[in-house]
Amino acid sequence: MSDTYTKLQYHLVFSTKQRAALIESALRDELYAYFGGILRGQGGILLVAGGMPDHVHLLAAIRPDMRAYILGQEEHHRTISSEEEFRTLLRRHGLSIDE
Fold first, then answer.
1. Which of 92, 32, 86, 41 is nearest to 62 (CA)?
2. With helix as H, strand as E and coil as C, how does the chain read?
3. What confidence tens digit (pLDDT) does each residue in 10-39 have?
4. Which of 39, 48, 50, 86 is 20 to 30 Å from 29 by CA-CA measure?
5. To 10 degrees, the CA torsion angle through 17, 39, 33, 56?
């Protein structure tokens, strides 16, 4: 519909491994900017970021077409496992796999 307005906002929470207090206050702004860059690269917007040494809270807006991607996960994972998708995302962003 041409007169439909969609505004999707998500509260995301990320924790460090084993909730270790690894996020120093001096690094938080840079970390939040990094998250913002990832969201922008996917067509989203980081609205607010905050957190503690062991976790981060993000309020993000995403494109309406991302909703279809999220809702299609059951069908999507018939062709690729969640584990393989996660490994692919890590490799795509230059992150090592910690097993």
1. 41
2. CCCCCCCEEEEEEEECHHHCCCCCHHHHHHHHHHHHHHHHHCCCEEEEEEEECCEEEEEEEECHHHHHHHHCHHHHCCCCCHHHHHHHHHHHCCCCCCC
3. 999 999 999 999 999 999 999 999 999 999
4. 86
5. -30
Whole-angstrom CA distances from 23 to 27, 36, 41, 44, 54 are 7, 17, 23, 24, 6
Backbone angles phi, psi at 59, to 5 degrees: -110, 120
Is the distance from CB of 22 to CB of 53 less than 8 angstroms? yes
